[in-house]
Input
Amino acid sequence: MLWSFVLAGLLLAPALSRGWMIGPYDLLAGGGLTARPGVAVHGNYYNNDLIAEMIQWTRLNWEQVHHGILPLWNPYNGMGLPLAFNWQAGSFGIPSLIGYLFPLRFAFTAGVVATLVIAGTGAYVLARTLRVGFLGSIMVVTVFELGGPLVGWLGYPNAQVLAWGGWIFAAGVLVVRGRRRVAAIGLLALVLAAAVYCGQPETFIIMFGATVVFLGTLLVLRAVPSRVGFSSGPIRRPAVDLVLASAGAVGLAAPLLLPALQLTAKSVRASSTQPPGMSLHALTYLIFSGFDGVPVPGNFGFSYSFYYEQCAAYVGIIAAVLAVVALVLGVRRRRPAVIAATAVAVVMGSIVFFGPVTHLYYSLPLLNRVIATRALIPLGFSLAILAGIGLDEVVRSTDARVVRTSLLWGFGAGALLLAGLWFFGRGGGYGKLPHAFYVFAVHSRAESFVWPVVCVAVGLACAIFLWFRFRMDVRLVGAIALLVCETWFLVAAGSIQIASSPDGAPPTPAVTALQHDVGSAVVGTSSVACTLGIPPEVNISYKVHELNLYDPIVPSSYFSTWEENTTTSSSFPTLNMFCPAIVTAAQARLFGVSYVIVAAGRPGPAGGVFVTRLRVARPSKSAGSPRGSAEDQDLYRIPGTGRATVMSVRPGQPPPPPDAPGTPVTVDDPNPTRWSVTTDTRTPAVLRLHLTAVPGWHASIDGRPLELQTVSGVMFQARIPPGRHVITLQYWPASFTTGLILAAATFVVFAFVLGRELLITRRRKTLA
Output
């Protein structure tokens, strides 16, 4: 099982040699207030979400945990948003929990390593559970841990969920076998819950569907008449046990599920997105890591590769041929695991690559909210299983003729496929590229053939060698050669995508000046393109509060409130991005924005007061980022607004409109989940709290409950009597409390039943 650590080291070694902080920090150097000269880009230069979201939330999680605070709330973006319940932060996932044990600068790196190790060890446990031999199990680990579907998403919650695939399948197989029934059910519930806590519900749903296909196929094969060759066994009890395990997983994961589902219903995430699947042309991605390019320095992605992590499917031609070997011998030997893994590959491959199936997939409830290309994740996993079984057959099978024929025909067909693609498929699928890019794309595609050709050559050499000598020692040498070549290819393909930094993203002079001028006030921008100020969510690193945000559960009311009260665009709701262009003081007051950043030389917001010009460094061309150019930016102050304001009202008078000016009052928030506001008014007033109105906030005034009202469904306000008062707000959703109770009850039930079973077993052994 140490092989999983070795693979993680091989994959990350080039990045770690440049710096111990894994992540594309270099992308921040290319523009905006974070621009820095002399910083070269490494890795995937479109991998913005890692630095814009995942690393920032990891940092915020770590800081709050190390201050003794549950990481429930992100106070730095918008008017504050839930953190642990946003489906992406993975605050309670195992990789995050491991990251909390390390210094902050290494927390994200530790989570990445933990993801790889969870994936590798789970794959090994699954292979041994399926009774695959040593080398075959190592091949499953290698293809799964280093394959494109995992490495492409490395650092994202998608990879963290996928990493539990081996453990989930292994626990499911144990449940189906029915030995140590309670322990198997408990294990499956536990690993399913662990996957849920990693976040990314779309990936979990598609992985859960793959698990249903895999285990369902195993149960169906038990019902096939024994004369067909499959062994029969009980069906009803394992099926019931699988349902019980799933219910147990829901109970254990309830502290995340209940609040997150409650938030999702009113967020932009509730809207349906149905992007198409991939064409048959993209099947080449299974054996090429860059047939349509890779968005890294010295190369560039075209076609699907713009979003490389979403289409990275490579497992290599060696794995593909070994999967065919496994299928041929598995059908002959009636191996249920081979049939089940093949069923997963066929179903998931059809969802991605076959248009009619993709259309049918999107017509199903719940699945119509899961992007079809997510099915590449379990597709790669199933091919890893088959590749390991195929290599195991090469080593251990006594059916020499079938093994030799399958290998020779498989790699021979691979050679013909590569030749056909070289002569007939190398010149198409580029789209409308300028001539210079077209020439570069042709060269890039030609280079992508190097590793498939090497792998086919090694495979043919092994097949020819085994054709003449099929002794055990010869088979071991051939199997090791295939494993080494496959490992080398996958490491080469994955390592170029990973970036790192020795110092992260230290604040630039422009960021430091902004921090000094705005303090804890909220900053907005006058650009809808999110290119001014600090990139959304990246501001977390610099403790600057920004209205701009990039969050998967941003409430829909943000966009509707902005559009109802202004005439400007509210940015990109379909991308979970809120970057409104603030051009008046009234618009700034709508969300409690005290400062607005404007491109240097452009008119400031009407009613704003000029503060200073933020001087931006000019990055070198080598640091070019798709984010935008570096330009100086002007900072304006907005009078009559703040994170909390008071406005006098007469008894019975309706509250002021959302953009009404008020008197700012100081907000004391030493804890992100707790606000304290002191007011002192001579007349009754309305306290306007620019705090996102989501379930879970509770208020009190001088120790007594205070009713909170919503403004435009997006923020809070409360009526307060005259005099001096202390208003306290606390964030702790009731659904979170309910989830904790359900999780504790589920754990107690499992512990009691398991303990009872162990006690009964011990008594029986004593009596015997």
Residues 454 and 485 are 8 Å apart (CA to CA). The chain has two domains: 3-500, 644-732.
